[in-house]
Amino acid sequence: MVNRKAIGYITANYTSKDKSALLESRPLASCPFMGRYRLIDFPLSNMMNAGIRTVGVVLPGNYRSLVDHLGSGREWELDRKKGGLFLLQGSAYGTAKHGLRFLLRDIIANKMMFQRASEPYVVMSATNIVFNMNLSDVIDAHERSGAGITMIYTHADRDVDDATRLNIGDCGRVQAVDHGCPYGDNEFLDCFVISRDVLLDICESYASADYLDLFEAIQDDFGRIDVCSYEFKGLAVGMFNEETYYKRSMEMLNPDIMHQLFTHDRPVMTKAHDVAPAKYATGSNACNSFISAGCHIQGTVRNSILSRDVVVESGASVSNAIIMQSCVIKRGARVDNAIIDKNNVIPANTELRGTPDDTLVVPKVPLS
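Above: the chain's sequence. Below: its structure in token form.
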């Protein structure tokens, strides 16, 4: 099924305003999630499941890991002769200013993609808020409303300082956007549908303000452009810094929460790897954990998330931790309340311990 109404546009060239060792060698969009996924998998899968077969991804400066993950776009049915995956030029956006992610300069620089499209709508999405929804319903609602823009929001399940709050008035029209969203208020999911003609008009009308985010530039014209809203009632997992990344990842170990994000009718696709299943040695102990293919478990793993090819040697213990690809936890070592990035070898009988409120982060080890 091909959606003839919309193309996709994903911004991946922003980062957290809080410095993080996890982002020194990769963009936020390619951060691992749940062991086998990357954050960009979720907006891509939302678009794939809606039949969108033309998607542009705005690249950051440190794009290597992202391009390696995306490849030709085959996993998301984007390796096509007509349409497909487009890797777009991105500006040095730096931190996500005021929590918004759609730099007008990037949109203008890549407007040829929108000019050449025949589809009347564009779905724009960031990557730091993970959710699984039927975008076809949003596109149809946008078409019926006749609005210029339809912003997707949910009711915040906690205070989110780095999120964007929508001030929604009569008939679901958005009147303004504000930085920071308190519990229960309207949290923007950094995803919206915009009419292609309206987008091209914005590119022309606001060219002199291209250093602003799209919603900063048009904030005085919300009434003229007619900005509408669409409520998403499912699970939305926002990750804005190391603390929220760790806590929201750990919440996925609860099956009731995890099953709200991963559904049979809307699968989340990711890059395929030809790796043998995880191996559990006699005497090993693993419980309440996500353990990816290629792992070799000889010791103890509890309440943790392990990416591919992680080795936990006999006598070693991992609990309440995120262990990324190709790490080795040597015999007798203990890791607790920590994020261990790629390629680390934790020496024998070493103890690495954070706390639930102060997660220990060990940076990635570059391959020599």
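The chain has a mean pLDDT of 93.
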